[in-house]
Amino acid sequence: MRIAILSGKGGTGKSTVAANLAFSLSQTMEVTAVDCDVEEPNLHIFFPDGDVAEEEVLTLVPIVDPDLCNLCGECSRFCRYGALVMGLNGPNLNPQMCHSCRGCRLVCPQDAITEKGRGIGKVSISHPLSGLTLITGTLNEGEVMAPPVIKKAKEISNSGQLTILDSSPGIACPVIETLQDADAAILVTESTPFGLHDLELAAEVVKDMGIPSGVVINRSDGRDQLIGTFCKEKSLPVIMTIPFDRKIAQVQNRGDLISRLDPSWSEKFQELYRKTSDLKEAVQ
Amino acid sequence: MKICVTGQGEGLQSRFEERFGRAPFFTFVDDENGLESLANPYTDGSGGVGPRAAQLIMDHGAKVLITGRLGDNAANALRSGGMKVYTSGGDQSVAAVLDEYRAGRLQPLQ
Amino acid sequence: MIKLAVISGKGGTGKTMVTAALADLNQRSQVLADCDVDAANLQLLFQSQMISREPFHGLESAIIDASQCRACGLCQELCRFGAIHNGGVYQVDRMHCEGCGVCENQCPEGAITMAKVQNGELFVSETEKGTLVHARLFPGSGTSGLLVHKVKQKAEEMTPHPSWILVDGPPGTGCPLISTVSGMDAVLIVTEPSVSALHDLRRVVTVCRRFGPRIMVLINRYDLEADVCQQIHDYCDNQGLRVIAQLPFDPQVIEAVRKGMPITRFDSPAGKALLHIWEDINSELVANERGRGEKPLP
What we know:
The complex is a heterotrimer. Chain A is of the alpha/beta class. Chain A has eleven helices and eleven strands. Chain A folds into two domains: about 1-55 and about 120-285, P-loop containing nucleotide triphosphate hydrolases (Rossmann fold, 3-Layer(aba) Sandwich); about 65-110, Alpha-Beta Plaits (2-Layer Sandwich). In chain A, α1 packs across α11 (about 265-285) and α5 (about 145-155) runs parallel beside α6 (about 175-180). Chain A starts with a strand and ends with a helix. Chain B has helices at about 50-60, 70-80, 95-100, and strands spanning about 1-5, 25-30, 35-40, 60-65, 85, 105-110. A six-stranded mixed β-sheet of chain B has the order 3-2-1-4-5-6, sandwiched between helices. Chains in contact: A-B, A-C, B-C. The interface between A and C is large, with 54 and 59 residues.
């Protein structure tokens, strides 16, 4: 089972939920947590222990053989991303603009173009706890192609066991890549108009993709009518409510986990998992 | 030698455009007083417009470009193609910018 | 003209709340741009009235003409983005198509064409604190950086010579952030004393440094975790970054968001602190602008 954790808005406590869920479940079963927020991966902060193995993430970029190139310019005319431009001495590549479509290679009449890998990020794998595997995707700073890094991180996790996917905020392509093949999603929100606005966006995405979902209200001050009404309208069950509490905030801010310090929270997160599994069952 | 100037419309009397990659028109003039304006297909493009526009004007045979501002990607593309780039600015016609260039008053882009 | 972007690295640190407060305190002409196109929230803090909306077209997408397709499967085989599926007929999944044009170019039947598709909407609203340009990206669109660019461009067109362009930025360090920071005079990074926020602060500073804006740091809810707050100060000192202010944790901030108003309209600790922050930023950036004006043109 693959559970994706997302939120339209950043900072709602998505990683808090992912980390606590991973910790709590690792007490009784094997679980893999994948940090798909590759621009700002944060799960590792909660699980610093264990040796880390790293794999580089490569994307393919063209290389031009100057002996074969006849400067015809077909490649640069084809490239829709402006990544290849004909200079006086042949095509020049701006690798960060290349989407690896290999169109230039296909259109070159001289067969002068081959491809090579270029590093854009890495995937780190560790075993911080006996029941937990942590996989972190990290996009190199200044790079823009997050989806290949997410894809690689997910591929490594693909072993059929319970997997928790911590998504990036928002609703753009990295989130879609994370949600791909997820069995259920947990939408984390907070009970403010900001939280509601962004929950609406996230709800639209999971609905489009047909992924059964439930809502976690974080930092609740008990006045959750706004979110509650929306969830009722959209038939999205609220599967957990975490109250606002300075102590919880402090634990979190220090990089610690409430479920590690307080077993009653560990139980609550296990309950969250059961409710999430039920969402999937209800669909099948 | 063909010179390309970015413009808001066609011809020499249209207003000079400071943007390069998303300039509405490229106006080309050559030594024989040949004149041609080309609508920029990339004004609404979705990325990579600077280098693509650079490729377009180089394919058109320009050796000199006069524009207002351009990004690093476009500048690198033009440099690799051996283009000379000059910058100008303000509210003036394409013809006036060309006069400035011919009088040697424009700064080359470093 | 002063162009200031409020950004954060990590989401949820209070970026939009700070942007709205600065906009509320500014007495000079300004235009507001919400560049968090994934989740534009700035308009929720003002009385905003939409005056125009227009479609946003991002990348092109492939379209397969079923009447010409002979189901050879070459397009599916060649597509590097996994965007072509065969469910009886070959179809393009727009959420995955990156508009490269390989399938169009290679289809032996000429059955595929590329066409512009709408990826979102661009809005202009009037607020009590000036014109606000904002946008909505359709789910799954890969062109948020371009939409950010359009929002900034529209903001510049809307008000010919504003004294300020105030930008509410996106979280993260990817293409929308890069698109936001490019061309800014200054960025105000709103962070908070959490290990995650410090981690993201480091990444966002690295990216901003490439664009050379003046970088200022604001620590929100500084009193929630003293140790991590000190680590942020140490990091900033090390990097030569100025922490211009600290905002206390203030429950009235949530009340203000609930009421849909900037916090500066409430008599509250955070509202008062923001008044000082505004005076500080204003004098620093105005002095900087004058300094620039006095320099001979290159």
